[in-house]
Amino acid sequence: MAQHKTEAFLLRQVDYGETTKIFTLLSRDAGKLSVIAKGVKRPKSKMGGALEPILRGEFSYYRREGANMGTLSRGEVLDGYEYLRSDLARLSLASLFAECVILSGEADSHSGEVYDCLAHFLSTLERAANPVAHTAQYLLKFLALLGFRPELRICTVCGRKAESFPGVRSSRGGVVCGRCVSREPVTFPLDKGLLNALRASQQMDYERLATLKMSAAQANQALRLMVQLLREHLESDLKSYGFLESMVLRPAKSESARKKEK
User: Fold this and answer.
1) Is 73 within 8 Å of 32 (Cβ atoms)?
2) CA separation (Å) from 260 to 144, 247, 253, 254?
3) Is domain 84-250 in CATH 1.10.1790.10, yes or no?
4) Contact in structure between 187 and 165 (CB atoms under 8 Å)
5) What is d(CA 220, CA 67) in angstroms, rounded to the nearest whole number?
6) Which residue, among 139, 149, 150, 184, has the nearest Cα to 166 in the 3D structure?
7) Mean pLDDT score of the chain, rounded to an integer?
8) Model confidence pLDDT, tens digit, residues 227-237
9) Residues near 152 by Cβ (< 8 Å), separated by ≥ 6?
10) With CB atoms counted within 10 Å of each terminal CB, which end of the chain scores lower, N or C?
11) The whole model's pTM is what?
């Protein structure tokens, strides 16, 4: 049984029996890993209280050749992203990104690039003025890393280039022009302002993303579009999105609406 040591993100934990958990990790060099942490739920466990999603750590584990799961022997926190523990909205956004990584098969073949994308995202999410826009931009980058870069400049039906489009058809992975929309209806309408913001985000490196401004409404729409495209690509629902939609993206009620409810 070979011993391995790797730096990785702890993305998910699942209870397994009374004292054990199964962790899903993302390593730069080994891709996604499943490791069983025996006894980690015991009160006297040295790892139990420290290892909670989402964090970056250094992990040692044993794994037999050809086995799908390893056995964790040691875990040390390198960055616990403590801001997530006191900010439910940011924690929910980070959990959405983690779920997308877990569900993606391509994340293994592009593990180094996905690792760097996630590292940039988590290290800058704390100070992001608009965390929803921040998350949407990084999910746009994540889609490109998976080989599913949304087409936002050329009609995905006829190939016509235009400055604006009625919207996106998720099964096509991009925009549909006004000529083609009758036979290929859009699944997500796009106004020109949001379209331009997403186009600009595609061209920017990670360091420059924060310079692009979106309104709260544009940010919410951008994240909804990314989720629709990811659901299409991953062929899976995103469970962590439900809370975001109901509690974070829900538009604030006006004063008159609140008075009517009273």
Assistant:
1) no
2) 45, 21, 11, 10
3) no
4) no
5) 42
6) 184
7) 91
8) 999 999 999 99
9) 174, 175, 195, 198, 199, 202
10) C
11) 0.91
